[in-house]
Amino acid sequence: MGPATRRQLLALDAARYGDRHLSAQISAVPVPDEPAGGWRVDWALGHQVDSRFRHPFTGHAGAVLAAATVVVGGRTLAVTSGSDTRVWEVATGRQLGDPFTGHVGPVRAVAAVVVEGRPIAVTGDGEGVVRVWDLTTHEQINQFLTGHTHGVRTVAAMVVDGRPVVVTGGADRTARAWDVNTGQPLCAPLGGLEGEVVSVAMAVLDGRPMAITATGRHGSPAVVWDLISGEQAGVLHTDRYSSGPSAIATAVLDGRPVAVTSEYETIRVWDLATRQLVGRPLTGHTRDVTVIATIDVAGRPSAVTGSNDGTVRMWDLATATQIGTPLITHRSSLYTLAASIVDGRPTAVTGSGDDGLARVWDLAITQSVETPPARRISALVDPVTTVLDGRVVVLTCGDHEEKEVIRVSDVSTGEPVGRPCFVSNTPVAQATTVLNGRTVVITADLDGVLRAQYLETGEPVGPPIATGDGFVSQLITAVLDGRPVVLAGCESSVRVHDLATGQPVGEPLAAGRVAAAVLDGHPTVVICAGGTGRTWDLATGQPISEPFTGHTRAVNAVATAVLDGRPVAVTGGVDATVRVWDLASGRQVGEPLAGHTRGVLAVATAVLDGRTVAVTGSADATVRVWDLATGRQDGPQLVFPSPVHAAMVAPDGRLVAGFGCEAAVLSPR
Questions:
Q1: SS3 state at 316
Q2: Averaged over 289-300, what is the pLDDT?
C-alpha cells in the first residue's frame, strides 16, 4: 500500500480505540504525491478492537468451519478447515506447506494429535469421508475412513495406550470410533441418537476410552459411550425441557475426568464417573454457547467458550469463575474454537463465516486495552443516517452493555444524542422515515416482526407488524399516496406495510434486493434477484421496465438516483462490478464500473459538489466513490480491516461505512 492508504488505516485504528486527537494528527501528516479527492477519518466504533489480538491466518477462500491445535517439539501448530485445509505455526501466523487436497466440498470437522512424535490431523467432509494426514509431510496416511452415509459434522482424537483413536459424528445420526493405525472401526457404530451429531469429545475413565456425543436437539441429552463395548455408559442433561447440549469438551478436574457442556448461554461441568453436576453453572454469555475448548493453564484446568453473542470467554473450572474480560472476536457467530499453550501463554484460535479469517488471541492478558464506553456498541445491523431535530445523526443497532439497543450518534463527532432506544428482540435490519413530523426508526427481528418507534422518545408507533414470510434481510421506506410505507425484503417476497396502521399494502412483490424511486411522478421500486432486476409500480405491483440483464452473478445491492434528469438504478454484484440502468427502459447506461476485486456488498447514491455519485462497499474491504456522469472512480479507494457491508453518504456529505461489527465516519479532505 502507498503512504496515503497506510495513513488512512492508522488514523482509522486510532479512531477505533477512541483517540480522535491522535487520529486527526495522523490524518494531518502530509504524504508525497497525495491523490486528490481523499477522505479523512472523523470517528469510528471500536467494538472489535482488543489488544489481545495477535494475527490472522489469511488464505481461506470462504468460512473457517473447523480448527484444531497440536503441540509437537515445543511448537504449536494449528489446522484450520473450510473450503480447504491448511496448517499454520500459531506463534508467527506462518502457513506451513500447501493446503491439503482430496476432500469434495467443505471440511467441517478437524482434530489433531501427536502419535509417537508425529503430528497427524483427521478431517471430515460433507460427503461423509474421513481422512488422516501427516502434518509434517502433508500426505494422506493409509486409506480414508468410510462408513458415514451423510456429512461428518464433528471429530475428536486422542491417544489411548499408545494408539491413536478417532471418534467422528455425522448427519446420519451416528458416531463412529476408529483405530487410526489400522483404519478399522474400534466398535460398532454408536447409533440410536435423536438427531445429527454436532459435537463429540473423548476421555479416559477407569482405563477405558469413552466418547461423549451431543445432537443439540431440544431435550436430547449428551450420551456417554464406552468405546470398547460400543454401549451407552450414561447420559448428561436429562431434563427433557432443557436445551440439548450443542458443544462438548473434556478435562481433568481434581484428578477426575469431567465433561464441559453448553445449555443455551450457560456452561455446565459434569463428573463423567457419576454423571452428576460439578459446582455451579458458568454464566456470562448472553446468547447460545456454540463452541467449547479446554486447556490447562499453570496446572489449573480452564475452559474457553465462544457464543453467538460474538464473544470468547475463559473460565477457571476449579472455582467456576471467569478469567479476565470477554474477547470481542467476529461479526457473525463463531463456527470453531481451539485452545493451546503457545510460548507458555494460553492462546485461542477462532474462526467464523464473516471474512474467511481465523484469528489468534493471547488469553494470558486478562484485561484488554479498553476503548471508551461509547465506542463499545456493536454495529451488527447496517448503520443508517437521518436528521433529528435539525441535526444529522447516525444510528447503530446492536449490543451495548449486554442489551439490544439503537444508539443515536452525532455524525460529526460520534457523541451520543439522547438515550439509546431499546429493542425487544434481536435486530437484523433497520430503516428510518418521518411520520407526523417526527423521526421514526423501524427494526426487523429474527422472526420477521417489524417494530417502529419514535426516535426521540422510544415510544412505539402502533403494534408490531408480522410480515409472515420469515427472515427479513432488508428494510427500506417510501411514500405512497402521501403516507409512509415500509418495505421488508423477506425470504420469498417483498412485503409492503402502511407504517401508521401496520396493515399490508397490496399484494407481496417478488423477492430480492429492493430500492425505491419515483418515475414519471409515480412511486416505483427496483427489485433485483439473481443476476437481474426490474422496475415495478409500487401502487399496482405491476412491472414497468424490461428486466435488467448484464451481471454474470447475483446482485447484492441496489440504489437509485437521478442522472441527467432521468431516474437510474445502480447495482452491485458478486461479479465485482457496479452497473447503472435506465429505470424506464431497463437498459444499461454506459460501461460497468470496474475496480473492486471481490463482490460488491453495498451501494448508495448521493450528490457531492453538484455531482451524482455512487458509493460502493465490497468484500475486498474497500469503499470506492464513482462519478456516475463520467463512469470513473472519484479519488482513491478507502481501505478497511474487514469486508464493507454498508456504505452511504449522510445528508451533510460525510461518508459512513460499516465493516465487521463496527462503523466509521469520514469527511472530504
A1: strand
A2: 93
Q: What is the Cα–Cα distance from 599 to 572, expressed in whole angstroms?
A: 8
* Residue predicted with more confidence, 419 or 549: 549
User: Cα–Cα distance between 120 and 136 in angstroms, integer?
Assistant: 8
Instruction: Write a three-state SS string for 624-667.
Output: EEEECCCCEECCCCEECCCCEEEEEECCCCCEEEEECCEEEEEE
Q: Which of 91, 49, 187, 75 is nearest to 135 (CA)?
A: 75
pLDDT at 243: 66
Instruction: Read off the pLDDT band of 588 (50, 70, 90).
Output: very high
For range 478-499, the mean pLDDT = 95
Question: Which pTM does this prediction carry?
Answer: 0.73
DSSP 56-69: EE---SS---EEEE
| Backbone φ, ψ for residue 375 (5° rounding) | -90, -10
Per-residue pLDDT reduced to its tens digit, 77-90: 999 998 889 999 99
How long a stretch of residues is the chain? 669
3 state DSSP class of 215: coil
**DSSP collapsed to 3 states, 594-625:** ECCCCCEEEEEEEEECCEEEEEEEECCCEEEE
Pairing of β 566-573 and β 577-582: antiparallel
**Mean pLDDT score, 175-186:** 90
